[in-house]
Design a protein that fits this description.
Distance between the termini: 113 Å
Shape: elongated
Strand content: 5-15%
Largest sheet: 6 strands, mixed
Number of helices: 16
Structural class: alpha/beta
Number of strands: 15
Length: about 525
């Protein structure tokens, strides 16, 4: 038994020393002191703290802080030169970044970006770094805390005029090669917060959770996401794309050996199981959609699809259920466990995030109806109809939205829209006039008086039985109380469904005058005239 313990100890020491001997290279850039737009408070601190963290985890770190264009390019070149023979590469960036035509750019501190041409000469495409990493290194980690609300992007959009729709908010989603993971401070197309402390919410969470002994990077990012959600009251949701083929453990525990298994097998299954345990008790559909995208052939695909159907049915039932007024006369708000918060049955704990505020949802529905994108009843319940209305607004207004969910940002965008966006659609018996749908009125037409014909003229054909003849003066006086329109008389006299299955009918109005109605075929509108 004593010999067995000695053998196991020697084995663990060898494995850990092998893991520690692997070559790790990191590039850390933080830009705060921008020369032509307001300075950012945190990226310089974020970069310095992240560099120290990575050095403690065994990385050879190339650091650049407050870099102009020449400095950014030189620092990237130094980093790429160290990638040869590296087992693990990491890139971290904090500062201004922007997306144009779906490609992401780093903004150096001397950038102005007053025109589209400036983009090529004053910004650095992030793909320059990512391509070099994927070409040289088998495992790559990228962390982008560069989604801040960017005045440089505003300058560029203003100079481009009608082409400014190609400039998106925040950063664009990035495709990854095999063995790479890219983590964003917030979801693609959205902007992140700087925070009130020393570090941004995203970087602060990374510093807390990266490098926990024996912890896989995927699991660490779940903890990061929870912390950021809690710190920003649900306004910011960190996002990641991954094509890793196994676990990546930045700091091995004394009972865990390999840092980066390069096959699938049990390690990949463990990551999938950990992810499923985190979301299985949630009622947020987006989490299960993300699971299906991450593990299209996973062990829980059927359960994820079933859970999505259950969530959809529950949303439909909630929309159909009458709301109970609260003490203030408004519908009582309901709360649910938000995205990324596991159910208590999972054995995990996390911050609870409230369901979207009903007053916020009601305000968004009101604005959607105002601009013609029919969201239906303004009941404060975010259902399929509201999502479709928001989707129609985004499509017709050429607005990029991170998700079709209610938020204060969505409300602000709607309120800034003064003119109607969605086209007005009128019913079958209505017509569009002066921007409004009005009922189509059909007035009865009296035939022209018959002309006197000579005895030598050919007798005219017998008029059909339903020919309309003008009433004589006596009848006109007696019909003075009749409506001018036979259509109106028909609506006042006949009940709904009276002419079902028929193409012609007649009746007598309460004023004593007879009207006749006809239509070309069943299902077509009636055309009524006085007799």
């Amino acid at each position: 038994m004593h010999c067995l313990r000695m053998i196991m100890t020697i084995f663990l020491v060898l494995v850990c020393s092998q893991a520690l001997a692997e070559k790790r290279v990191a590039l850390v850039i933080g830009n705060s002191a921008y020369q032509h737009v307001p300075k950012l408070p945190n990226p310089d601190n974020d970069a310095g703290d992240m560099a120290g963290k990575l050095k403690d985890l065994g990385f050879e770190v190339v650091v650049g802080r407050d870099l102009d264009l020449a400095g950014v390019r030189k620092t990237i070149r130094d980093f790429v030169g160290k990638l040869d023979g590296a087992d693990l590469a990491l890139f971290y960036y904090a500062g201004h970044g922007l997306q144009v035509n779906g490609e992401n750019y780093i903004a150096p501190i001397d950038a102005r970006l007053l025109s589209y041409i400036d983009l090529e000469f004053e910004a650095v495409p992030m793909n320059l770094i990512l391509s070099a990493m994927e070409r040289e290194t088998r495992v790559n980690l990228v962390f982008l805390d560069a989604c801040r609300d960017n005045p440089l992007a505003v300058n560029l959009a203003r100079s481009m005029g009608t082409r400014s729709s190609s400039i998106g908010r925040g950063l664009a989603k990035v495709g990854t090669g095999i063995g790479s993971l890219i983590a964003f401070a917030t979801q693609p197309g959205n902007v992140a917060l700087d925070g009130a402390g020393r570090n941004s919410p995203f970087t602060a969470a990374l510093l807390r959770h990266l490098g926990k002994p024996g912890r896989d990077i995927t699991r660490e990012l779940i903890d990061v996401r929870r912390d950021v959600l809690e710190a920003t009251d649900g306004k910011q949701v960190p996002w990641d794309n991954s094509s890793l083929t196994g676990e990546v453990v930045l700091k091995p525990s004394t009972t865990q050996g390999a840092v980066v298994p390069h096959g699938g097998g049990a390690a990949d299954n463990a990551a999938e199981l950990a992810y499923w345990d985190t979301i299985k008790g949630s009622s947020d559909r987006d989490l299960f959609d993300a699971y299906l995208q991450q593990y299209p052939a996973g062990a829980f695909v059927s359960l994820a699809k079933a859970k999505i159907r259950i969530i959809e049915r529950a949303a439909a039932d909630e929309a159909a259920r009458p709301q109970t007024p609260a003490a203030g006369g408004l519908p009582a708000a309901t709360e649910q466990v938000a995205a990324l918060t596991p159910h208590t049955d999972s054995g995990l704990s996390g911050p609870e995030i409230a369901e979207p505020n009903r007053e916020l949802v009601r305000a968004i529905q009101k604005e959607l109806n105002r601009i013609g994108c029919r969201a239906g009843s303004e009941d404060g319940l975010w259902g399929l109809g509201s999502r479709r209305a928001l989707e129609q607004f985004a499509r017709l207004g050429k607005v990029e939205l991170a998700a079709l969910e209610p938020s204060s940002d969505v409300l602000e965008r709607l309120r800034t829209q003064k003119a109607r966006i969605c086209p007005l659609v009128c019913a079958q018996n209505q017509q569009l006039k002066a921007g409004r749908c009005i009922d189509i009125k059909r007035e009865a037409k009296l035939p022209e008086p018959s002309k006197t014909r000579s005895t030598g003229e050919t007798p005219a054909k017998k008029a059909p039985s339903n020919t309309i003849t003008a009433p004589d003066d006596a009848k006109r006086k007696s019909f003075a109380s009749c409506p001018d329109s036979a259509q109106l008389a028909a609506r006042q006299t006949l009940g709904r469904g009276s002419g079902r299955g028929r193409t012609a009918m007649s009746a007598t109005h309460a004023c004593g005058r007879i009207f006749a109605c006809a239509r070309a075929a069943r299902g077509q509108p009636w055309d009524c005239n006085w007799r």
